[in-house]
UniProtKB/TrEMBL annotation, chain A:
Alphabetical UniProt keywords: ATP-binding, Cell membrane, Membrane, Nucleotide-binding, Repeat, Sugar transport, Translocase, Transport
Organism: Actibacterium mucosum KCTC 23349
Protein name (database record): ABC transporter permease
GO MF term (any one): ATP hydrolysis activity
Subcellular location: Cell membrane
SMART domains: AAA
Gene Ontology CC entries for this record: plasma membrane
Domain ABC transporter, chain residue ranges per copy: 6-241, 252-499
Automatic annotation (TrEMBL), chain B:
Source organism phylogeny: Bacteria, Pseudomonadati, Pseudomonadota, Alphaproteobacteria, Rhodobacterales
Record Pfam families: BPD_transp_2
Transmembrane segments: 30-48, 60-79, 85-102, 109-132, 138-157, 177-199, 228-250, 262-289, 309-328
Compartmental location: Cell membrane
InterPro entries for this protein: ABC_transp_permease
Any one GO MF annotation of this record: transmembrane transporter activity
Protein name stated in the entry: ABC transporter permease
Mode of membrane association: Multi-pass membrane protein
Protein's UniProt keywords contain Isomerase: no
UniProtKB/TrEMBL annotation, chain C:
Pfam families according to UniProt: BPD_transp_2
Residues passing through the membrane, by range: 12-32, 44-63, 70-90, 96-117, 124-142, 162-183, 214-237, 243-262, 269-288, 294-312
Superkingdom per UniProt: Bacteria
GO MF terms held by the record: transmembrane transporter activity
Compartments reported by the entry: Cell membrane
Cellular component, GO annotation: plasma membrane
Name the record gives this protein: ABC transporter permease
Species the sequence originates in: Actibacterium mucosum KCTC 23349
Membrane topology: Multi-pass membrane protein
Lineage: Bacteria, Pseudomonadati, Pseudomonadota, Alphaproteobacteria, Rhodobacterales
Signal sequence annotation: none
Keywords attached to this entry: Cell membrane, Membrane, Transmembrane, Transmembrane helix
Keyword Membrane: yes
InterPro entries found in the cross-reference section: ABC_transp_permease
Length: 509, 338, 328
């Protein structure tokens, strides 16, 4: 057997408060296409960043061609013949297509950038991918799919021995996927080692030779030949259903009046004719693939983005929600963002400030007077109730673990006594123990009469938690299913709703 | 049913002890600066001839009280992560109009001062409005308005400074306590206390800090972010005008050079005092101590015979040294944390 | 893709509107004051244009990486007095003085860049601090007294004319052409723009962001130094006040020309036209005998107009793009 192009042993990566990788293994051979699978937050991106020199592992060793190697920077990894297409866009906005493709290997002649040669080489890689793009076009004029293909062309242009593709097909059409696959097979024959990360299992079964699955930073399986697997077994590895969730017990059926109703709502973000109802005290689950438009709908609902048509009824009365203040103060709606660091929490401020932010206007006396003591008194009970593990209410929130941060995210809306609470990806980046706790909390909150809308990409989670399921796909509601809480029963129904509603499926039918 | 049934094995954290430590570390931030200021005073008292002279101290406290208000004016926009380069021109416009009302329109002094402060507030609101509407960086907006305000004043007040302001007005700067403390220090102290109370004890202050720390999160938490920005810039304009009024009282005339050299000083005081350029954290006491450091340094250096020309050099070095040390401390504590 | 006609391509260029503004201004000035086209007036105009052009690019290159250099004026002033002092006090020949002055500006820029790159402190604070350090150095050394005894050759160069143009205009012409070549055709220049456009992506592509930061500030410092020395030639005196009033114009010209403070784009022609428009306003005021200090107001208003216009244009472009997407 040939020496593996890349071998990773016992890789562990710790970030403050998060264990992103926990003793992970990977072996990538020359001339193979190796699938790296796992749910969001399973550690795939961290593993890729270790291979590309963005992160150094806290523990463990990376072997390149059998030699233990430490990459200090992306430049080192590139020097070792590793090319990568990352999940986030990495293009230079004002540069042309050709300049972006040749960014790492800009051709020069006599110290000058050789534009004709650059254009010629770029054209060659575009042709290899069957792309009809003008190499002189600035990249901000391209469509999202074109940008994605461009990044692939750029990775190919390095003629790397090792190629990492992180979700390369996320936003491209079936035809483009086929062109890419043809090319990847050619590279494979040339002996290039390819690591392929995708959420789309059909693609994995179509092109990959071996499979590694990560779950919670560990190997659910390592380098298993694809013949030994089938779709169900891969899914089982990914979600680890047998031990992922504690039993939440029984929950009584909700038979309260309707709290929230959407009638033919469309948004500036692109939603069309969204209809659903949610009862008082109900847990309504929203499932869909990344890009199905769930978070965007939530943002429109709380007034952070604009709606362009339709009606929202709260307690049977039409509600106009022009901004977040109205949503919070008049309609008592709250939104726990999936992006805690970005727009969910103020990590540089204290625990007390982060919970108090929604209630300052309520606890204030005499023209806006709020003392620290008043704030602590108002929020303290929520910190206790949710068992936020913090040395003090004055603690900087950024110093707490992901799970405790998430508890604070929920606490601030509980403190505001919201009647409609939207929780986006409640357990992303949260350890298993806290995960079960948060699920239980969602039920407790609903038991107090709050309407909870839970958005999740984690199918086992949504099936366990929700009373009813709204399935979304391509910015539309495609199914409204009663939830039996039986995963084997629900998962085919959900997938079926998504597959039959996809535009690709409709075209082929 | 309560959540407390879960995870009962965790002992309740020792909150009181942690809170005490927390308070100490907050105090320590200003304490370091206070120590430096104290050291400086000790050095100058012993080695700078005339430093302890009553008139010198009076002059020092008078300059310092103006500088601190200028620093506050920048601090309130730094809280948002913004800047206000128009601080000096705003002050200029305010005092010229105040001077005109006082001298030419011959209205009572309080009315004139009120007009000046109103003009400053209004100009600040213009800045805030432009920033909210265009969503452009406050640097470029206030750079542009700075020159527009300045240019407009130069055009309108072609005739030059307005001198011989009424004694009733200039008297503000002549009051002394104990024979050496300027009465204007009282204005500064009151302003500082009001600002401190605003940030620590009011909804508005907290909203401004939340906006500065993470505007997106603040918005999604139901904070009227645009209103917070507008008010903070209005406040900045008000404080600029107030500093201008105090400066004018000291000079006895509304000068066209008012605010011309405030840029460095306005940033120095809050930044030395630990206010973050990125927004979300301010220290009123720190800004005051920062202004004190600058004022004492300027005064003392000249007294020990350092030529006037080198003072700015020393101030620049001080700023660079302070931010570098702060940064170093951050890096070290981050390493220890891991 | 269809080939566009020359007119279409002209109108598509970001500097076309600015050029039209400049041309209209010149036309109006020619009509109302025939003195405008006078060779003497043109010489005055180009003489004040020369140093400012270099100053604008000293700022533009730092804006290109998404930072600011508040110290351009201070570096310019410091190099100017060193330049004057070297010739008057030490009697150094002009070329040697120029060489040392250039190195001095470069070193100041490297200092800025290195502190920013390795400490991670915001460039605004660092250059604010070095602004006072360099200015303090300038005043401390000269005690605010200018160096008057400049060599004959330098004074001749500062006053000479070629037709309607001031001789000193040759320096910015060389600098701008060199810079334009550098940004377009050298790897280092491309790296500066790449880092400004997307520092994260540039880092992943193996470009050292720290090295690029230092390089951009070094070039900025060198250009500021050249502008300072050119001002000495123009004034015939080593004035310590040189550079004191550069800050506004240094930002105004690139911003009017279409630069974005986030970085990634250095509009060469736009910046030149931006400087031209600023100088035209100043010239107009001079011709009317108005105090040129009023210039401030108009330059400030111009910045607001330009950013407002660019904001409106980008909104419109976005709307057009969305429409196009919707149809596709």
């Amino acid at each position: 057997m040939s020496t593996p192009a890349i071998k990773i042993e016992h890789a562990t990566k710790r970030f403050p408060g998060v264990l992103a990788l926990d003793d992970a293994h990977l072996e990538l051979r020359p001339g193979e296409i190796h699938a790296l699978l796992g749910e969001n937050g399973a550690g795939k991106s961290t593993l890729i960043k270790i291979i590309t020199g963005v992160h150094e592992p806290t523990e463990g060793t990376v072997y390149v061609d059998g030699q233990p190697t430490v990459f200090k920077s992306p430049h080192d990894a590139m020097g070792a013949g590793i090319g990568a297409v990352h999940q986030e866009r990495n293009l230079i906005p004002r540069f042309s297509v050709a300049e972006n493709i040749m960014l790492e290997a800009t051709p020069t002649r006599a110290g000058q950038v050789d534009y004709p040669e650059m254009r010629r080489q770029a054209q060659h890689w575009l042709a290899e991918l069957d792309l009809d793009i003008d190499p002189d076009l600035p990249v901000h004029r391209l469509s999202v799919a074109q940008m994605q293909l461009l990044e692939i062309a750029r990775a190919l242009s390095l003629e790397s021995k090792i190629l990492l593709l992180d979700e390369p097909t996320a936003s491209i059409t079936d035809h483009e996927v086929q062109v890419l696959f043809t090319f990847l097979r050619k590279l494979k024959e040339k002996g290039v080692a390819i690591l392929f990360v995708s959420h789309k299992l059909e693609e994995v079964f179509e092109i990959c030779d071996r499979v590694t699955v990560l779950r919670d930073g560990r190997n659910a399986c390592a380098s298993v030949p694809i013949e030994e697997l089938n779709r169900d077994r891969v899914v089982a590895h990914m979600v680890g259903r047998e031990n992922a969730l504690s039993d939440l017990g029984h929950r009584a059926e909700v038979d309260a009046p309707v709290k929230l109703e959407l009638k033919d709502v469309s948004t500036v973000a692109g939603h069309k004719d969204i209809n659903f109802t949610a009862r008082k005290g109900e847990v309504l689950g929203f499932y869909g693939l990344v890009g199905a438009g769930r978070s965007e709908l939530a943002r429109a609902l709380i007034g952070a983005d604009k709606m362009s048509g339709g009606q929202v009824l709260i307690d049977g009365v039409e509600a106009k929600i022009p901004n977040v203040q109205t949503a919070l103060r008049k309609y008592r709606m709250g939104y726990v963002s999936e992006d805690r660091k970005g727009d969910g929490l103020i990590l540089a401020h204290s625990v007390a400030e982060n919970i108090g932010v929604t209630i300052w206007h309520k606890i204030a006396r005499l023209g806006g007077f709020v003392s620290d003591a008043m704030q602590r008194a108002a929020v303290g009970s929520y910190v206790d109730r949710l068992e936020v593990k913090t040395p003090s209410l004055r603690q900087r929130l950024g110093n707490l673990s992901g799970g405790n941060q998430q508890k604070v995210s929920v606490a601030k809306w509980l403190a505001a006594q919201t009647e409609i609470l939207i929780i986006d990806e409640p357990t992303v980046g949260v350890d298993i123990r806290t995960k079960g706790y948060l699920h239980k909390l969602i039920w407790e909150v609903a038991d107090t009469g709050v309407t909870v809308l839970v958005i999740s990409s984690d199918m086992p989670e949504i099936v366990a938690v929700a009373d009813r399921l709204i399935v979304m796909n391509e910015m539309a509601v495609v199914a409204d299913l009663p939830n039996t809480r039986n995963y084997d029963e629900m998962s085919p129904r959900i997938m079926d709703a998504i597959v039959t509603s996809s535009s690709d499926y409709k075209e082929s039918a | 049913m309560t959540a407390t049934q879960l995870e009962t094995d965790m002992s309740p954290p020792d909150r009181r002890g942690a809170a005490f430590k927390d308070m100490l570390s907050r105090l320590a931030k200003s304490a370091g600066l206070a120590l430096v200021v104290g050291l400086l005073i000790f050095v100058f008292v012993n080695w700078a001839d005339g430093f302890t002279g009553k008139f010198n101290l009076f002059n020092l406290t008078r300059n310092l009280s103006v500088a601190a208000v200028v620093g506050f004016g920048m601090m309130v926009v730094l809280a948002l992560g913004h800047m206000n380069l128009a601080l000096g021109s705003t002050a200029l416009a305010s005092v010229m109009i105040m001077g005109w009302v006082m001298k030419v329109a011959a209205l009572p002094v309080p009315v004139a001062v009120g007009c000046g402060l109103a003009v400053g507030t209004f100009l600040g609101l213009i800045n805030g409005w432009l920033i909210v509407k265009t969503k452009l960086h406050s640097f470029i907006i206030t750079l542009a308005t700075a020159s527009m305000f300045l240019g407009a004043v130069l055009i309108v007040f072609r005739a030059g400074p307005i001198s011989d302001l009424p004694r009733e007005f200039t008297g503000i700067s002549k009051t002394r306590y104990f024979g050496w403390v300027s009465g204007m220090l009282l204005i500064t102290a009151v302003t500082g206390v009001v600002l401190g109370v605003m940030y620590k004890f009011t909804t508005l202050g907290r909203q401004m800090l939340a906006t500065g720390a993470n505007a997106d999160a603040a918005e999604l938490s139901g904070i009227p972010v645009n209103r917070a920005i507008l008010i903070a810039h209005g406040l900045s304009g008000f404080l600029a005008a107030l500093a201008g009024v105090m400066f004018t009282a000291r000079q006895g005339s509304a000068l066209l050079s008012t605010g011309e050299d405030w840029l460095l000083a306005s940033f120095l005081a809050p930044l030395l005092g630990g206010t973050l350029l990125a927004g979300g954290y301010v220290s009123v006491l720190g800004a005051f101590l920062g202004a004190m450091l600058v004022g004492i340094l300027q005064n003392g250096l000249v007294l020990i015979g350092v030529p006037d020309f080198w003072v700015e050099f020393v101030l620049g070095l001080t700023l660079l040294a302070t931010v570098s040390l702060d940064r170093l401390r951050e890096v070290i504590s981050a390493r220890r944390g891991n | 893709m269809k080939k566009q006609s020359l007119t279409q391509r002209f109108l598509a260029a970001e500097w076309s509107s600015l050029l039209i503004v400049a041309l209209i201004m010149m036309a109006i000035m020619t009509i109302i004051t025939p003195r405008f086209l006078n060779f003497d007036n043109q010489a005055i105009l180009t003489r004040s244009l020369a140093p400012l052009l270099i100053v604008a690019f000293a700022q533009a290159i730092v804006i290109g990486i998404g930072q600011m250099n508040l110290a351009v004026g201070a570096i310019g002033g410091m190099v100017a007095v060193f330049f004057g002092g070297m010739m008057e006090v030490w009697g150094l020949p002009i070329p040697v003085a120029i060489g040392i002055g250039l190195l001095c500006g470069l070193a100041a820029g490297v200092l800025n860049g290195a502190v920013i790159a390795y400490s991670g402190i915001n460039g605004f604070i660092v250059t604010l601090a070095t602004l006072s350090i360099f200015k303090g150095l300038n005043l401390g050394v000269t005690k605010s007294i200018p160096f008057y005894e400049m060599p004959q050759a330098l004074q001749w160069f500062g006053e000479a004319r070629v037709g309607p143009f001031a001789m000193i205009l040759i320096v910015p012409v060389i600098c701008v052409v060199a810079l334009a070549w550098f940004l377009k055709y050298s790897l280092a220049g491309r790296q500066i723009l790449a880092v400004g456009g997307n520092a994260h992506a540039a880092g992943l592509a193996g470009i050292s962001v720290n090295r690029v930061t230092i390089m951009a500030h070094a070039i900025s410092g060198a250009l500021a130094g050249i502008a300072g020395m050119l001002s000495v030639a123009r004034l015939g005196v080593g004035q310590p006040t040189i550079g004191g009033d550069w800050l506004l114009a240094s930002f105004a010209a690139p911003v009017i020309g279409g630069a974005i403070l986030l970085g990634g784009h250095i509009p060469v022609i736009g910046t030149i036209l931006g400087v031209l428009v600023i100088i035209l306003i100043e010239n107009l005021l001079v011709l009317y005998g108005v105090d040129p200090q009023y210039n401030e107001f108009f330059v400030g208003a111009l910045i607001l107009l330009a950013v407002g216009f660019n904001h409106w244009r980008s909104l419109r472009a976005e709307a057009a793009y969305k429409l196009q997407e919707g149809q596709a």
